[in-house]
Amino acid sequence: MSGGVDSAVAAARAVEAGHEVVGVHLALSRMPGTLRTGSRGCCTVEDSMDAQRAANIIGIPYYVWDFSERFKLDVVDDFIAEYAAGRTPNPCMRCNEKIKFAALLEKAIDLGFDAVCTGHYASIVLDADGNKELHRAAAWAKDQSYVLGVLTADQVQHSMFPLGATPSKAEVRAEAAERGFSVANKPDSYDICFIPDGDTRGWLAERVAPATGDILDREGKKLGEHEGAVAFTVGQRKGLSIGTPAADGKPRFVLEVRPITNTVVVGPKEALAVKEIAGDSYTWAGLAPLNPEVPFECHVQIRAHADPVAAVAQVVRDGERVEFMIRPHEPLTGVAPGQTAVVYMGTRVLGQCTIDRTVSAVPVSAVTDA
């Protein structure tokens, strides 16, 4: 129970469905006195109190479990390391993967519980043979299946999402008000919970020592200098401070961040188009395809609120290297290593991979950078 309206209503619905429910709030902050600022951040003292009030109304036991050390190691430190490596991580994916459906579920199973129930907008569906599958929520506008794409088949077996069939968030808020929950109109959390002021660049600058490096075009020509590659991500336009305009007068965008050489590569917008993505860290959220090494049609989504794109995917073996490769039918734009590609079959979440490499749809010779 995060202290928000969704998890409060999910807990109440689980009780009414006949389950024995215990409310758990995860203390993830290393600073237990942290206060909430509007809709920024989560897991604060106020959130814990909101969760307890909802649990009291529902009439269920309520506990606070301290996972702050695990959260720091698996989410915060990972976030810093990924940016230092020139990648663009998604901490919400890591939190679901390492904390809510790993550390929390492991402890719950050890204590004799059968499942973790959350307020995510997603659905569990049984196939013809009774196997559990993870699917999109009924309301696509609120669908959160993307951030659950990191769940493994075993974790899906022990997950419950009571809000999956709910048509809208407005209906959940109305239900919360009817139940007397004080969080009925509480704003949704957004941004990165451990960077509540939203200044990711400034936060990283305090933790990753900046080092001046070169800004290059795609052919290796120096266009300027930067004060720290960690401040840049693929697709970024602002903050380049190159000065000299491109020959065609069009703006330039970050195409690559190369931490080994401490360089940032920029180019025209069309060079952001990607025709292939792949990663060797992948999982299946349920039964895998019968033969994943045979190309299969699917849809791929690379951001939580991005539109799914038709694609062909397959597992590729090259010697000892095994990776999940995805080729969209139409080029993707602004894809960065470190992002998560979630693959769907219709509404079903089939699996995911962390993107390690991309292949540009536009060769260097086909565009003009300067």
UniProtKB/TrEMBL annotation:
It comes from the Bacteria. The active site is at C95, C193. Residues 203-267 form the tRNA-specific 2-thiouridylase MnmA-like central domain. The record marks H120, Q339 as: Interaction with tRNA. GO terms for cellular component: cytoplasm. HAMAP family: tRNA_thiouridyl_MnmA. This is tRNA-specific 2-thiouridylase MnmA. It is an enzyme of class 2 (transferase). InterPro entries: MnmA-like, MnmA-like_C, MnmA-like_central, MnmA-like_central_sf, Rossmann-like_a/b/a_fold. PANTHER family: MITOCHONDRIAL TRNA-SPECIFIC 2-THIOURIDYLASE 1, TRNA 5-METHYLAMINOMETHYL-2-THIOURIDYLATE -METHYLTRANSFERASE. Residues 288-355 form the tRNA-specific 2-thiouridylase MnmA-like C-terminal domain. The keyword Disulfide bond applies. It catalyses: S-sulfanyl-L-cysteinyl-[protein] + uridine(34) in tRNA + AH2 + ATP = 2-thiouridine(34) in tRNA + L-cysteinyl-[protein] + A + AMP + diphosphate + H(+). Belongs to the MnmA/TRMU family.
